[in-house]
């Protein structure tokens, strides 16, 4: 187990299909944050307006030949 965030209101995490990133809603206004699972980097994703909840990654796409 690895702690990626120390925010008391972080919720609704979603792991990227490749397992290298986690996206989650944070705070009362529901800003999105992304954290890397293999090194200590975390960033907030800027939004113009609105309130975000329940973030999710798109499905992993397989390249066809």
Structural overview:
The chain has 65 residues and is mainly β. It contains no helices and 4 strands. It has strands at 11-15, 21-26, 31-36, 42-45. A 4-stranded antiparallel β-sheet has the order 1-2-3-4, with no helix packed on it. A hairpin with a 4-residue loop joins strand 2 (21-26) and strand 3. The protein starts with 10 loop residues before the first strand and ends in a 20-residue tail after the last strand.
Brief summary of the model shown:
With 65 residues, this protein is an all-beta fold. The protein has strands at 11-15, 21-26, 31-36, 42-45.
Topology:
Elements: E1 11-15, E2 21-26, E3 31-36, E4 42-45
Antiparallel strand pairs: 1-2, 2-3, 3-4
Order of helices and strands: EEEE
Q: Low-confidence spans: pLDDT under 50, at least 5 residues?
A: none
Largest sheet: spatial strand order = 1-2-3-4
- On the 0 to 100 scale, the average pLDDT is 78
- Please report the distance between the alpha carbons of the first and last residues: 37 Å
Gyration radius, to the nearest Å? 13 Å
How would you describe this structure in keywords?
4-stranded antiparallel beta sheet; 4 strands; 65 residues; 0% helix; mainly beta; single chain
């Amino acid at each position: 187990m690895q702690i990626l965030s120390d925010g008391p209101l972080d919720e609704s995490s979603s792991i990227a299909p490749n397992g290298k990133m986690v996206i989650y809603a944070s705070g009362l206004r529901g800003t999105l944050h992304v954290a890397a699972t293999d090194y200590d980097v975390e960033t907030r994703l800027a939004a113009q307006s609105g309130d975000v909840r329940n973030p999710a990654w798109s499905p992993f796409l397989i390249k066809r030949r």
